[in-house]
Amino acid sequence: MASATCTVGKLTTVPATFAGGKVYLPVQLNESTALFMLDTGSADTIVNAPFAAQSGAGMDRRAQPRVFTGAGNKETLPVFLGHVRITRIGDIKYQDWEYSIVDLGGFGPKGQMFGGLLGMDFLHYFDIEIDFAASTVSIYRLSGCSEMHPPSWTGDYAAIPLTHRASNVITLPVFLDNADLDMQFDTGAQGVLLSRDAAAKAGVSADTLAHDPASNGGGVAGRFNVASHHFKLLLIGKGIYPDVDLRVENEYSRRGETDGLLGLAALKAQRVWISFTTNTLFVQGAPAAKGK
Question: Rounded to two decimals, what is the model's pTM?
Fold first, then answer.
């Protein structure tokens, strides 16, 4: 539970849809609702162009190019601005908000309308609880909390420090083979994606990567080539993952700030609490540390 001076207020709980290791929740713009991906790897909330048109967002048609720096780090897309009268996420309501509008294409999970990405410009004001067993996302507002514990959780869980960097990037410490890494916590990422420099820190040479199986990945920031490399040991909080195959970027990216991306699926969690107030990631359900 939280300390006596810490107040934890739940603002809303909404149903969550889980697909591909990612979390989607319903967001209403004006009178229309669609599934948005909860994306701590996106600095801004982005509305998918087809949903922007359906919801009646007032659009400024003067497109501005923008370089997206997620997985792939090399895509420049036209971005429009759109004005939305009412935004609702469960019981949370905003009026007169301006969003970036990008044609992300496609549909969300189960063929539903894909609304876009719910990014850090919204998320970092709150604490976010993701409950995989209950299929819910709860949003909290904390006051007077320098440290806290998830108020409704019982049993063992890990508390992992988060670092809030420039451009709304959040990172967490990870140990991989011989290296201490600083990974971006990106709920929009598929598992783990290492930079080439991070792989080198863990003892993997460029020649070794050249002989590893290669495949293609993709995201908002475009398509990119990755190698699949076998590592002996990955540690995330209390989670111990021996003998893992992780993706490594086959090209040097522009992401010099972190050692790569770490998504929700890598945590193998039952519940996750992202505390932007106390800069802590709480994880329940990861394998217990040996000897504990």
Answer: 0.89
